[in-house]
Design goal:
Number of helices: 14
Protein name: Sensor protein
Strand order of the largest sheet: 5-6-7-9-8
Radius of gyration: 53 Å
Strand content: 5-15%
Shape: flat
InterPro entries: HAMP_dom, HATPase_C_sf, HATPase_dom, His_kinase_dom, NarX-like_N, NarX-like_N_sf, Sensor_HK_TwoCompSys, Sig_transdc_His_kin_NarX/NarQ
CATH topology of the largest domain: Four Helix Bundle (Hemerythrin (Met), subunit A)
Catalytic activity: ATP + protein L-histidine = ADP + protein N-phospho-L-histidine
Helix content: 55-70%
Structural class: alpha+beta
Membrane topology: Multi-pass membrane protein
Distance between the termini: 69 Å
Main location: membrane
């Protein structure tokens, strides 16, 4: 490959850089002059304002001499401060300021010394006769300052105008040079590149013989095109080969897609598996294919179009170290895609595994529900049945020994009341079971359970639930519902409340809280009466949830039942 060298003296970058350097020089000159004039003018406005204020203060002395002579000394100090202000004092050290302006300023100071004597001696007539002349001196001084500022502005405008004309001339020359010596050649390069884009490697001739970057670029471009033509020819052959491979891969992907659609459209069955195997058989042009499902012989499938050949290949399907099935196939002269066959086998195995696992999960769920029902029936009715047994023994003993009819009547009344309570408790428990089955969402389950209690009271029952349903298992959700139900029923029966709130949320410490509060008459003691087990049951259920149970009176009135729960999700 040839290497072309650029002469630095003929470089386009060097020439353009020179033009920009000259333009920047003129721009710097303009900026410097402008900044210098602005710097000299920075206090012009202040000078004119201070000088103008001298006129006002001079007239004010006449008024002070006649009406407030006690303020004369103060006004003299103020006037002297204005006359000798830093802005006016700086005039003496300015090199650009005309001598006329400096002389007028000195004249003002001299005349003022004379005027100050008139003021101190209260010489009204002399001061009045000189005031007009002094004010004219001030006006002349202010006028001289204004003329000098205007003169500086004219000088700045002239210098800027001349520099701008020179910059415009240089810019025009730069544009002409760019169009003539750069853009024209670039257009040729663009046309040649467009021809290359259209796969025409015999592009227009680049007759650029400039000893600069464009000349080197044209020669390099021509050399590059010749090499690109060779490369393009070889790439066409490689693309054709890649296309054949991609076509095969695409066909395999389509097979996998359709097999996936078949297996996910309906529950897996022998018919669906047969459709998958038939599609693979047709796509890979196999002589035979067979599927053996371990432990499910009724799903075994064999499709054999060549009964004479016994050259079977096989792939054992295992999911999570569990052997699921065996896929076998017989190939023709063409070699099948083994990765495709293995992927299909894994897909079939995963589908079978999901079906088997789903059945196991259903069985476990059924067993868990039975266990929950048995435990809840035992926990809720055991106390009542024990009470029945004791009362019946008392009744038998009274009938055999004491034969006290009033006592027997009291025992029968207790039995009837306990029986009604047990029956009511059983109905509530069955209602809770229906909620847990029909409403997996905790908020919906609580709302539906509270709906059944709202019909039993005139109190307003509200619910605020911000806890996720996934916190609790089925049995844990039953405990939560029963705690809320028992606390709300106690508030309805005993609190004489008009408002009952159920709140389930996470507190500031990150603990999950279950609160039931009312505005009733509160509780006198946390010791339950004989035959009542509501608090005991709530405490036991809170313990089952690994939570802390609290019951207390509220400062604003009413009672508060609280269960503080750990983070059930993190525990899992």
């Amino acid at each position: 490959m040839n290497t072309f060298v650029i002469n630095p003296k003929n470089s386009i970058a060097r020439r353009i850089g020179l033009y920009f350097f000259i333009i920047i020089g003129f721009a710097t000159l303009i900026s410097g002059i402008s900044l210098g004039i602005m710097w000299s003018n920075k206090s012009d406005a202040s000078l004119i304002n201070v000088s103008g204020s001298l006129r006002y203060q001079s007239y004010r002395f006449w008024y002070e001499m006649n009406h407030a002579p006690e303020n004369i000394e103060l006004r003299l100090e103020e006037y002297r401060a204005s006359l000798h202000s830093p802005e006016l004092q700086a005039l003496n050290s300015s090199y650009l300021l005309p001598k006329e302006v400096k002389a007028r300023y000195q004249r003002l100071k001299d005349v003022w010394e004379e005027m100050a004597l008139y003021i101190r001696h209260q010489d009204h007539e002399s001061y009045l006769s000189r005031i007009e002349h002094y004010v004219k001196e001030i006006d002349a001084f202010v006028s001289a300052l204004q003329k000098f500022a205007e003169f500086k502005l004219k000088i700045a405008i002239s210098v800027i105008a001349i520099s701008m004309l020179l910059i415009i001339a240089l810019a025009y020359y730069g544009i002409w040079y760019t169009r003539k010596r750069i853009i024209k050649h670039l257009d040729q390069l663009v046309l040649a590149s467009q021809q290359i884009q259209q796969e025409d490697f015999d592009h227009v001739s680049l007759a650029i013989n400039e000893p600069n970057e464009l000349g080197v670029l044209s020669k390099t471009f021509t050399q590059m095109v010749s090499e690109l033509k060779k490369l393009y020819t070889s790439l066409e052959d490689k693309v054709a080969d890649k296309t054949r491979r991609l076509t095969a891969v695409n066909r395999s992907m389509m097979v996998l897609y359709h097999c996936s659609q078949i297996l996910t459209s309906k529950p897996v069955s022998r018919t669906l598996l047969l459709q998958v195997l038939e599609r693979v058989l047709a796509n890979e042009q196999l002589k035979g294919i067979a599927l053996e499902v371990y432990g499910a012989d009724y799903w075994n499938i064999t499709i054999d179009t060549d009964l004479l050949s016994e050259q079977w290949q096989q792939y054992e399907i295992a999911i999570e170290n569990e052997k699921i099935a065996m896929l076998r196939w017989k190939s023709s002269l063409l070699c099948p895609d083994e990765r495709l066959l293995q992927s299909v086998a894994e897909m079939i195995g995963r589908s079978i595994y999901v079906v088997q696992n789903h059945k196991q999960q259903q069985q476990l769920i059924l067993m868990e529900e039975r266990s929950i029902i048995a435990r809840e029936l035992h926990d809720s009715l055991a106390q009542s049945l024990t009470f029945f047994k004791i009362q019946i023994r008392l009744l038998q003993r009274n009938g055999e020994i004491e034969q006290d009819w009033e006592k027997q009547k009291a025992i029968l009344n207790d039995l009837e009341k306990a029986l009604n309570d047990a029956y009511s408790q059983l109905r509530e428990l069955l209602s809770t079971f229906r909620l847990t089955i029909e409403e997996a969402n905790l908020t919906s389950a609580l709302e539906r359970m509270l709906d059944t209690l709202r019909a039993r009271t005139s109190a307003q029952i509200s619910l605020t639930c911000k806890l996720p349903s996934l916190m609790f298992s089925a049995q844990e959700q039953v405990h939560v519902l029963q705690i809320v139900r028992e606390a709300v029923i106690n508030a309805i029966k005993h609190a004489d409340a008009s408002e009952i709130e159920v709140i389930a949320e996470t507190n500031a410490d990150g603990e999950h809280c279950l609160m039931i509060r009312d505005n009733g008459k509160g509780i006198e003691t946390d010791i339950e009466p004989e035959g009542h087990y509501g608090l005991t049951i709530m405490k036991e259920r809170a313990t089952e949830l690994h939570g802390e149970f609290k019951i207390q009176n509220r400062s604003e009135g009413g009672a508060l039942v609280m269960v503080i729960l750990p983070n059930m999700l993190s525990k899992r």
